[in-house]
User: Which sequence fits this backbone?
C-alpha cells in the first residue's frame, strides 16, 4: 500500500533541491520530472532494503517509462499546499498546456532533508543536479534502470535485483540447511536416547534370565544320599581292601617303559 505522506515528502524535496541549482532553467520541474524523481527515490531506497520501496507505490512500465497514478495525483495537492510557483506554458505544437513548478524554502529544506532516509536524499541530489528538468536525458536514464530493463510495457516493476534475489535464495537455502541440521541433530539425539533405553531394557531382561538360570543348592537329605548310592552302584561291586607289599623288579628302572615317551 502506498504512503501519501512519503510521496509528498519526495515531491517537496525534489522541488526544494531543484531550487538550489545555479541555472535558473533547472529550478523548474514539471509533473513528468517529479514522477520520475519519486521513482528514482524508491529505486535508491530498494537497493538498501532488499527490494522494498519507500513509498510502497505499485510502479509499472508505461509509455514514458516508470509510472504510478498514485504519485501523479499527489502533485497538484502538494503544489497547492506549499504554495509553490506555477508556470503555465502553452504551445501550438501541443494540444494541452503544460506546467512547471518551482519552490524554495531553506528552513523546510533542512526539515524535509532530515526526515528522509539518507539513501533517498543522496540519490535525488545527484540525479536532480545531473538531469534537472532535461526531460530527454531523465527519461533515457530511467529507461535504463534495472526494473525497467527486466520488464515489458504494462508490467508491474520489480525492485528486487538479481543479486538481492540470489542473496534471498541463499538465505532461504541456509535456513533450510540449518533446519535440516537441527532435524538431523534431534534425530541423532533421539536415536542415542532410544539406544540407551534399549540397552537398559536388555540389561534388565538378561538380569532376570540370569536370576532364573542360577541353580538351587542341592538338598543333602535322605533322597540325596539314596541317589549317591544308586550312582555308585553303577560301577559294579566295590573293591575289597587288602594289605600287602608291592615289589618292583630291578630291571624295571632301566626298561623302555620309563624312557619311551609314547609309553609314558
Assistant:
Amino acid at each position: 500500500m502506498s504512503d501519501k505522506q512519503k510521496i509528498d515528502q519526495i515531491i517537496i524535496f525534489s522541488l526544494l533541491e531543484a531550487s538550489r541549482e545555479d541555472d535558473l532553467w533547472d529550478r523548474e520541474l514539471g509533473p513528468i520530472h517529479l514522477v520520475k524523481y519519486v521513482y528514482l527515490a524508491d529505486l535508491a531506497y530498494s537497493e538498501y532494503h532488499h527490494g522494498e520501496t519507500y513509498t510502497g507505490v505499485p510502479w509499472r512500465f508505461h509509455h514514458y517509462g516508470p509510472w504510478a497514478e498514485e504519485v501523479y495525483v499527489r502533485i497538484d495537492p502538494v503544489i497547492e499546499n506549499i504554495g509553490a510557483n506555477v508556470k503555465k506554458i502553452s504551445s501550438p505544437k501541443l494540444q494541452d498546456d503544460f506546467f512547471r513548478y518551482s519552490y524554495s524554502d531553506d528552513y523546510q529544506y533542512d526539515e524535509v532533508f532530515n526526515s528522509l532516509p539518507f539513501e533517498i536524499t543522496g540519490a535525488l541530489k545527484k540525479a536532480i543536479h545531473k538531469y534537472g528538468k532535461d526531460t530527454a536525458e531523465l527519461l533515457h536514464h530511467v529507461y535504463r534502470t534495472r526494473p525497467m530493463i527486466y520488464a515489458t510495457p504494462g508490467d508491474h516493476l520489480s525492485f528486487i535485483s538479481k543479486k538481492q534475489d540470489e542473496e534471498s535464495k541463499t538465505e532461504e537455502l541456509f535456513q533450510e540447511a540449518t533446519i535440516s541440521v537441527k532435524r538431523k541433530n534431534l534425530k541423532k539425539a533421539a536415536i542415542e536416547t532410544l539406544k540407551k533405553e534399549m540397552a537398559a531394557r536388555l540389561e534388565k531382561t538378561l538380569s532376570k534370565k540370569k536370576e532364573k538360570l542360577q541353580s538351587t543348592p542341592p538338598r543333602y537329605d535322605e533322597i540325596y544320599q539314596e541317589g549317591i548310592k544308586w550312582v555308585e552302584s553303577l560301577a559294579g561291586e566295590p573293591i575289597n581292601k587288602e594289605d600287602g607289599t608291592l615289589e618292583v623288579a630291578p630291571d624295571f628302572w632301566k626298561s623302555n617303559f620309563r624312557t619311551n615317551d609314547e609309553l609314558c
